[in-house]
């Protein structure tokens, strides 16, 4: 049954046999796990929203990503861009900050699957906080 449903979903998905995608949803892992939604608003520009959860709390991030091709097929891309976040941490700490992102994005040709690897340095505006270089992660997303 699972194989049949997967085959039907892949057949209906126009990105399954394509090197490009419009929207992708999945997870991002690093020091915890995040839910990721990425959507292209132009050919070389995307928005990514991440809800990240770990033992310290939760963080919601929005990124604007500029994309460029790294290979002639177009399925491997680099991306870079700015963003912002709000974090809800233990001890009733709610913090806001700015983010950057630099990474690689790969779309499989025969699967509706995209993977990415990135680094998201950030700065939180609060006493005792500041620069944090430990954000980012490995994204695995279903494309549609």
Structure in words:
The chain contains 1 helix and 10 strands, in the order αββββββββββ. With 144 residues, it is mainly beta. It has one domain: Porin (Beta Barrel), CATH 2.40.160. The chain has an 8-stranded antiparallel beta barrel. A hairpin with a 6-residue loop joins β4 and β5. It is elongated. It starts with a helix and ends with a strand. The N terminus is likely disordered.
Number of strands: 10
Helix percentage? under 10%
**CATH level-3 fold name:** Porin
Task: Give the topology string: H per helix, E per strand.
Answer: HEEEEEEEEEE
Supply database-style keywords.
elongated; single chain; 144 residues; Porin; mainly beta; eight-stranded antiparallel beta barrel
Summarize this structure briefly.
Helix content is 8%, strand content 63%. The chain is mostly beta strands and 144 residues long.
Topology overview:
Blueprint: H1 2-12, E1 23-30, E2 32-42, E3 45-54, E4 57-69, E5 76-89, E6 93-107, E7 113-119, E8 122-124, E9 131-132, E10 136-143
Antiparallel strand pairs: 1-2, 1-10, 2-3, 3-4, 4-5, 5-6, 6-7, 6-8, 7-10, 8-9
């Amino acid at each position: 049954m699972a194989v049949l449903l997967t085959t039907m979903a892949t057949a209906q998905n126009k990105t399954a046999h394509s090197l490009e995608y419009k929207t992708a949803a999945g997870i991002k892992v690093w020091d915890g796990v995040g839910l990721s939604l990425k959507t292209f608003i132009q050919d070389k520009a995307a928005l990514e929203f991440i809800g990240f959860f770990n033992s310290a709390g939760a963080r919601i991030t929005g990124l604007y990503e500029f994309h460029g091709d790294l290979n002639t097929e177009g399925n491997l891309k680099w991306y870079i861009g700015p963003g912002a976040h709000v974090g809800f941490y233990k001890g009733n700490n709610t913090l806001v900050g700015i983010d950057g992102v630099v990474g690689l994005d790969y779309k499989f040709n025969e699967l509706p699957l995209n993977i990415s690897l990135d680094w998201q340095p950030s700065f939180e505006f609060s006493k005792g906080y500041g620069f944090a270089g430990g954000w980012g992660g490995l994204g695995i997303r279903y494309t549609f």
